[in-house]
Amino acid sequence: MLASLNAGMAAIIIFGGGALGWLRFHEQNTTAGFFGIMLGLLAGFIIAALTCGTLATLLLIENHLRNLVAHAEHKRRTQKQ
Asked: What Rg value do the Cα atoms of the chain yield, rounded?
């Protein structure tokens, strides 16, 4: 659930960066608008990689910790029996 929200947030950041780049450069000429889109997409990709990559890493750590706790509980239960 959180991983899909993270991917959606990354897509919004990337395409939002492209839209902001276009808004910033489109009034100069057609080449500048295309350059603005590319620059905005690149900036959006970098920002999404940093923020969503960090969040994905934290989600992965949390999942591994849950698995370790579940494995420890299962091991404790089998040793008592």
From this structure: 21
pLDDT tens for the 81 residues of the chain, in order: 788 899 999 999 999 999 999 988 887 877 888 889 999 999 999 999 999 999 999 999 999 999 999 999 999 988 876
Residue 10 burial by Cβ neighbours in a 10 Å radius (0-12, 13-18, 19+)? buried
Q: On the CB side of 30, how many CA atoms lie within 13 Å of its CA?
A: 0
Q: Name the percent of the chain in helix, strand, coil, to the closest 5.
A: 95, 0, 5
